Amino acid sequence: MVPARRRGCMVVLFQLVLVIGVALFANGCLSRRMSAHAEAMRQLDKIADSSRKA
After folding, report:
1. In contact, 26 and 34? CB cutoff 8 Å
2. Total-model pTM
3. C-alpha of 33 from chain center
C-alpha cells in the first residue's frame, strides 16, 4: 500500500497535470477558432473591396 501522504502528493500532481492539459487544449482550440475567424474576415474584406471597385 502507498502511504497516505504520498498518495496525497500523487493526487495533487495528477490534478496539476490535468489542469495544465486542459489549459493547453483550450488554448489550442481557441487559437484555431481565432485563426479561422481571421481568415473569414480577410475573405469578407476581399469581397467588400471587389464590390466597391466594381
Report:
1. no
2. 0.63
3. 9
